[in-house]
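Quick one: structure tokens for this chain, please?
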Amino acid sequence: MKESRQNLYSWAILLGLVIVWGSSFILIKRSLLYFEAAEVGILRVVITFLAVMPFAFNMLRKISQRMMWYLIISGSVGSLIPAILFAIAQTKIDSALAGTLNALTPLFTLLLGISFFGIRTRWYNVVGVLIGLAGAVGLIYANSQVQLSFDVKYALLVVLATICYAFNVNWIKIYLKELNALTITVLTFFYIGIPLLVYVLFFSDIPHKLVDDPDNLTGLGYLVILSVIGTGLALVAFNKLIKVSSPVFAASVTYMIPIVAILWGIIDGEVFKLSYALWFGVILVGVLLVNTSPRRKFALGTRLLLRKRMRDKRCMVNDEG
């Protein structure tokens, strides 16, 4: 009962993240109308830092110096670098393509986990990763209404960002397992946010842009939504998901992000194709396989073995009687 409730909890977090992060690419695209790509990435981190800062001070006393460096690495590799890479990439490639390439995250999570973090997995988890990846790619190919522009160099920036995400998922599972999800999110942005805030205020053109052109406040509004909801709150949920499930299952959220991107397109007047439903199903099958745990089979086998022994024992008692 407890395990099934935890699985339901994991899926609820996963679906919530799909909705939030599936909408983030359009917010990045809108923000790029007002700010440079690097500014979008940096502001995304700074705004999240300002949002979580009030929670940080009570947490700092409980953090050792060793744990502080682990958090700085997590914040830099898992948040700052990908935020800048995605923003730069979307100056040359479409947001739908960026969202699709983001589906490489579970594959890299599995590969890095096995190669460098000693993560053990089963063959059906690997199959689930490949099926989910095939579903995500097929979904975009089926969406022929969207004309994707493609620039290999900028697409590779998204691939690099997914490698950063994959590293961070494994890093949190191994090195930050002592901390809860809220603490990880708050302190990763606290440590990297302070120097970035100094840079924004004193060494960038961002304050002048906001003062000289009030229209840029609209772009700032997109970034506030993206940062507070799509980065801050979503990362709390994601870090929690890593802890209550497996790193690969948590990363499989990226397989379902293209679904939300296409639904946004339908709302915007694009035509829904029946083939979309097929690829949705393929993605879900892949995620289910990724989340399959051998412990459930072991538990089921153990229960059946115990029942068999109980029956054998009762039969022996009856025979002796």
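The mean pLDDT is 80.
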